[in-house]
Design brief:
Number of helices: 6
Strand content: under 5%
Number of strands: 0
Radius of gyration: 20 Å
Helix content: over 70%
């Protein structure tokens, strides 16, 4: 079966209707398990106390904030090359999720940063790149709303997505590029000296899986909504003629 079969809106709607209940239930179970384990069953950190537990929101939201842009990038490139409408609508559907996750990552990072650095905000490389990523997300969303013709909006936003990818890359690897930043290294690492204790990493993995499932659930729901809106737009356009 060809992957491109699901670029057809009707085929996408049929498949998503079948898998959405499964993903939704999996999201609820995984998120509930991960967050309960992380916030209520893990010990206090010997340096940061209970404040370290914000990691169970901060790291997963940052993960989704960055990788949502890459999902949008792939979808945008597919639109630019093959002109599959579902791919453009997936990118459009993902943007508000990316905005929300970026805001959560920034706010939880500020709260955690105040405990670690004594300040809510510093123009640290990763914080700065995340702030710029948020601006690109908002610009992307605004551009979709500003252009009336859907295909023209898809074209312009796809180009913006390609350009903005540099900030998604910087957000991911800023701590590796600029070692002098305040932001600590990766919490999850193959290096045993940098990797957090298993008491925190195990529930963190589950939280990350839950956030990934949450992203899939939301992007499917929003893409289905966008497809229905596009069908209504086409119907009204034909009637107007």
């Amino acid at each position: 079966m060809s992957f491109w079969k699901f670029s057809n809106p009707n085929n996408f709607m049929t498949l998503s209707e079948k898998i959405l209940p499964i993903i939704s239930v999996s999201t609820i179970l995984t998120l509930t398990t991960g967050l309960y384990w992380g916030f209520f069953l893990t010990p206090e950190d010997y340096q940061q106390g209970n404040s370290v537990k914000i990691i169970f929101l901060h790291v997963p939201s940052a993960l989704i904030a960055i990788n949502t842009w890459f999902v949008m990038l792939v979808s945008s490139i597919i639109w630019l090359i093959r002109r599959h409408h579902v791919s453009a609508l997936i990118a459009k559907a993902a943007a508000p999720i990316g905005i929300t996750m970026t805001i959560i990552a920034i706010i939880t990072g500020m709260i955690w940063g105040q405990q670690m650095w004594g300040t809510y905000w510093a123009w640290d490389p990763r914080l700065t790149s995340f702030f710029l990523l948020l601006m690109f997300y908002i610009g992307y969303q605004t551009l979709w709303s500003a252009v009336e013709k859907p295909d023209s909006a898809a074209e312009l936003t796809s180009i913006l997505c390609v350009v903005g990818t540099v900030f998604a890359v910087l957000s991911r690897y800023a701590v590796n590029f600029w070692s002098q930043g305040l932001h600590q290294g990766a919490s999850l690492s193959l290096d045993k000296e940098e990797h957090i204790h298993n008491a925190f990493s195990n529930p963190l993995y589950i939280c990350m899986a839950g956030f990934i499932l949450l992203f899939l659930t939301l992007v499917i729901l929003r893409t289905r909504t966008e497809i229905l809106k596009r069908k209504i737009f086409i119907l009204l356009d034909h009637k107007g003629r």
